[in-house]
Amino acid sequence: MSRNKPIRIAIVDDGVSEGLYSIGHLDFNIEIDQDLSVNTREDYNAYLPSHGTTCAAIIRKYAPDTWLGSVKILNDVSKRAMRDQFITAIEWCIENKVKLINLSLGTIVFSDFEDIRHFVNKAAANGLILVAACNNNNIYTLPACLTNAIGVKCRKLFIDEQYKFIPYPFDGIDIEASGRHMLTDTNGMKRYTRPANSFASPLVTAMVYKILAAKPQAVLEEIKEILYRNASNLQNDSYNPYICMNTDWFERKGGPEGCPEYLCKSVFESRKKAGKIWIEELYRKNIEKYINSKGYRRMQVDIPLIAVFDTGNCNILNRLSQFFSSRGYYSVKVSADYRDIVYGSEYSPDNIEIEEFISLVYKKHRCDVILLRINSFINFKYIEKNELFDIILFITEDGDYCYHKDTKKNLPLVLSFNRNDTDERLDYVFEAAFKLLGGTADTNENKA
Question: Which residue range(s) make up the domain with 262?
Fold first, then answer.
């Protein structure tokens, strides 16, 4: 590879101490403070251990000719950063022609998700490749679980360069890789890193670097396909990285492009090789394959579940979700109508039992409440007799009805009004359902 056109790699973490593992000169070494100022990092101990230093050493071990740079955003004491520090780091990398980012960090705070999603999509549109580690508790993490990132978690039995590729992941995690890597410091001391998601990510970053070194113009989908072909679990199954299980990569625009018809046409009818697509048939097939796979276990759901019967559109579902979010509760929307996925809903296909799919969604998100939209009387009658759901909102053109359910009888709370009635009236229904679930109306606690 020509040194005139280096592939710049940024380690966004708690800083890199380049002396500890003889990492060598850093291409750049900056720090983004809480006031979002970007400064050259100075007056630090170049031999002090840090998380970012270990990540840099792992990358250097497997890709010794890399040009590494450090973007410090994590606080030295708390080891945390604000959302806006992360976003500023992404923007700095775009502006400074960084090609590849290692992120052995992420957020599980749901109020951060939409902004993070938007800026990761912006980074991908600018050709920036993000390799991101899942939270060590393996719960929904951004940016790792986004389609426009390469999501990584650790497989504890793996060692050194071993990894497994996961085609069409429902949770967005593309790779299970080794987190155990032998490192030698400047004193000659050798040790293995502990098996953790954050130490699996730099291995994948090194592999992506080598792909880019051989094919500098490779885009994210090509890189994923090459990683799939080189994985230890390669099978004869076909894998098309342009076919996506989720639509988080799709930016919902204003104006004519924001209408449902345009969104559905863009997502569901496009068959251009250069663009991502979502295909219902393949989605259904992959969900069924995952649930029937060896080792899959259904997770018990112990959170409130609300069903919304609505033959109109998903506006009521979206407003109900916003209602819970405004009170600090992480709600996930599920819909039996595949068109709702462009508005952020998980699609519940009819080839999977509702209970099974709800469990799958809960396993993915570990959220506070799940909201299911149904639009057929068959599904409504099934759910009406099912003790899984706590609340049913039955919405028609004539009136809305809220039913609280328990194992013995229905306790109806009937609040009739027209669908097009005032926002205050609709919020009154939501508040009533919220109180039936034991919620406190004035809570602002973020439980994510």
Answer: 255-291
